Amino acid sequence: QKEVEQNSGPLSVPEGAIASLNCTYSDRGSQSFFWYRQYSGKSPELIMSIYSNGDKEDGRFTAQLNKASQYVSLLIRDSQPSDSATYLCAVRGYSGGSNYKLTFGKGTLLTVNP
Amino acid sequence: ETGVTQTPRHLVMGMTNKKSLKCEQHLGHNAMYWYKQSAKKPLELMFVYSLEERVENNSVPSRFSPECPNSSHLFLHLHTLQPEDSALYLCASSQDKASPHFGPGTRLLVL
Description:
The structure holds 2 protein chains of 2 kinds.
Chain A: E1 4-5, E2 11-14, E3 19-25, E4 32-38, E5 45-50, E6 54-58, E7 61-66, E8 71-76, E9 85-92, E10 103-104, E11 108-113
Chain B: E1 4-7, E2 10-13, E3 18-25, E4 31-37, E5 44-50, E6 53-57, E7 64-70, E8 73-79, E9 87-94, E10 101-102, E11 106-110
Parallel strand pairs in B: 2-11
Antiparallel strand pairs in B: 1-3, 3-8, 4-5, 4-9, 5-6, 7-8, 9-10, 9-11
């Protein structure tokens, strides 16, 4: 059973701080990694994707991937109250077949306090 | 309309009812998905269609029946559901195996 693990939180940070969200996965063959943000009552929206080891930066967001440790993280700099949401980690492994399946974690609830 | 649309947005049904969920994507994508999101559980993939052919069927009970008449439309036919099927049902689309773009979801309550 391929799994993606995240701390459920809540993770609470003050406005302007760095929020660090972590995710581990069990399938060593995983190739693609995604972070989705889901506001309460809304559907998930993609904020970052990463495919190779190292860091990938997009504005205030940085995704970090370490395949040897089977670990992917998301850093949010200068956190804003509007960043308060549940952050979902998703992983696509190589399972043969169609390989369309993304495995999601349960998500981490982030609260940014003004 | 842009993106991925779903109807109805909310649905209440009894266990003996038959209903259908509808999804339409306006992104020109060639793959469509049904996901289920229950409280305290990860998003679960139910079905994937690529170029109108079902390519994933994630051990979903037969009381859920998908239909993909063309690359822009996807249905989920529901019959004799159980209360534990109450959840948010999310449709998504993607171009090939790129990350899926989700619709707003249908909130389903089975009584």
